Amino acid sequence: TTFFEGSAGNGLVTLTLNGEKALQKISIKPECVNPNDVEGLEDLILAAFKDAASKAEESGNSPPQIPGMRF
User: Which of 65, 69, 70, 71 is nearest to 22 (CA)?
Assistant: First the structure.
């Protein structure tokens, strides 16, 4: 199986998609978790997802389609 890793915030958030375009793993470093800045964490997760999807697309796999997420 092929995996695609995306990251954001200099590695504060990383996630892995498999070749079937399913989310396999999310890693969030504790230093980026701030209850007063949930929106910032959401932005990092979305950026990491887009990074992984871009890598999947570059490899010839179409990016995953999740309702509400546009590329």
Answer: 65
